[in-house]
Write a structure and sequence with these properties.
By secondary structure, this protein is mainly alpha-helical. Among the domains are: about 240 residues, no CATH class; about 210 residues, Serine Threonine Protein Phosphatase 5, Tetratricopeptide repeat (Alpha Horseshoe). This is Outer membrane assembly lipoprotein YfiO.
Amino acid sequence: MAKRIQGQLIGAAAIATGLLAATPVSASSDMGCYFSVSLENATSTCSNTAAIAPGNDSRVNLILLIRDARGLRPMPTSRPEPGPWSEFDSTHFGLDDIWQAYWPRKEEEDGDRYGAFGGSRCQSLESGTAAFTSALEAAGGVLAPVQRSLIKGRDALGATCAADARAGRAGLEFYVPSRGVANAFYRYLVASNAFYAGEWNLARRAYRSLTKSDDPWVRETALYMLGRVDINAAQDGAFGQWGDFLGAAKANTAEAERAGRLFDLYLSAYPDGRYAKSARGLKRRGMWLAGQRKALTHTYAEAMATLDPASSDFSRMLDEIDNIVLRDGEMVEALVDPLLLATRDLMRMRRFPGSESDEGDDLISTAVLAAQAPLFEGRRELFTFLQANHAYYVARDDGRVLELIPDAARPDSYDALAFSRQVLRGQALARRGDRNEAAFWRDLINGAEPVYQRPLAELGLALNYERNGQLDKVFAARSPITDSFIRTTLLRDSAGPEILRAAVRDASLPASERRTALRALLWKDLSRGHYAAFVADHELLQGFAKDAPFDEETYTGERYPLDEFRSGRWSEEYECPAIVTTAATLARNPNDVHAMLCLGDFYRLNGFVMDAGRYENSPPGAPRELGDGPDAFPGALIPRQALYQQVIAHRSAKSADRAYALYRAVRCYAPTGSNDCGGKDVAQSQRRAWFHELKTRYTDSRWARELKYYW
């Protein structure tokens, strides 16, 4: 099947200290996750599409809805350059991809979170030291020796953080300025040492005494830090060992409310102050800890409508929404903003394909959704879109989808919601087998924006053509399916020999398509036993450049390799000619023992893994995936194990060849007992018999000596 792998995860622990990190979050694991190249998007994974859907990252859905609500234009003109390890294709993307496409990120201002004390109250230690030093140098009137002493004192705070010590003035025993601005900076160090040590009362008194300081930096910073003291005091003890929130009952509500008032006071005095962004974020945290759910959701709604989407503050806010609003049952009950409510509703429609279960046993019901209608007043298209998603993913009522979403696939352009509505309609048409489905996708393609929308619309049409055995339409002249990923996937997985040969010979096609077509043609010729065709098609290699060399910096090589078929790797232990010679021998005699063993070595040593192939068809009830339709290439794959079995059964084979075949047949299951040679697994008793025959009948062979076990 055409699947891609990507991993990304942070947990609720990120909420415990500092602001939430603006990093990708999705229902996956750090071991990677799988997603299907399909229009179906019912399950939360690591990938997203341009169509708003239950399976998208909730923040991607919010981004698309916010762009529509705010009328943010223009659309992106190109996709961000993928990193060397990116697994995404043109139809699917990661959260960071869409950030970079819509709003190329400014230099982040929150690098503290990734430092030695990231995710704790000490995360601001490094940037705070730099700010302290700059402010001290700008203050004037502080002698150089005193400056050095104060900076040394600031550096000493690191020991407090490292030890998590409740140390009072530990580490600050040095010359104490008795008056003036130097004394204010010293007292600030005492307050900060108490803060980093978790001595909230001491820190609170010390910072409060500095809010009237003559130095503007000390005065502003002390007021801001008063709020930080209270927010940290409020959450002290509210999180478990691993950062899991233990509930509002464990938080100090009074401290949280006081922190909110202090941040209001700071923002009133310094609306554009040094710490304004942080103060707004921490104020939201205070609301959360204090249980002010409705006020918090209103604050988020206001921020979604006003914050600069290119700012780290905006992405941080979406992280907070994803973690502490959309996943908190009590918080969800307070939702009245239609964008937040729609995003949460979609999350409650997530289901695993082909299963009656859902991700959290919290599927939203038709009645609950209908009761929300007043909250979507003035947003009828959004509300009916939610109803249609419920009909498609939960109720599985395609007719209802078509009633809720009329055909509107002919405009010149679409915003995110309009496009998403039409994609969902197309999915319903596909599942019903509607005869007009292909025409619908062709219309939708014409108005789709080129970067994210069009590839998805082309995917819908390509799936229709593949499902109906019309791959020739994908590769016909002036085909509307121009996306390289879609075309190369179908060439690799589904196309027959005529389409492949035509693509190889068409010099107007991109090299990626031509090389993919030739590799698929040669591989399928060979693996399906069309040896004479392989020899003839091998001549086509002359028109292609050699593979790009391996890049040691990026650990990447040729994306569309062909050189295995030119030379390939061979074993020094079992001598074989070039693969084209081996194929020519098999064309004359398909039962040639030496040639069969050489073919097995070619597969083994050149990366042709036969247990990782796609399924020929989707399982019943599963969504359609690109490349999993009926393979138009004739013949069945001849697995490597079958080659060894043929030689073993060939009693007139030379002893050296039979010994090698037995050795390789047993090693198909090394080292775990799993078959990596393809074909039907044989019983362990048969593997034991092969092992016994090798060790007793061919005792003097190197293969008997080398094989110590069977699996």
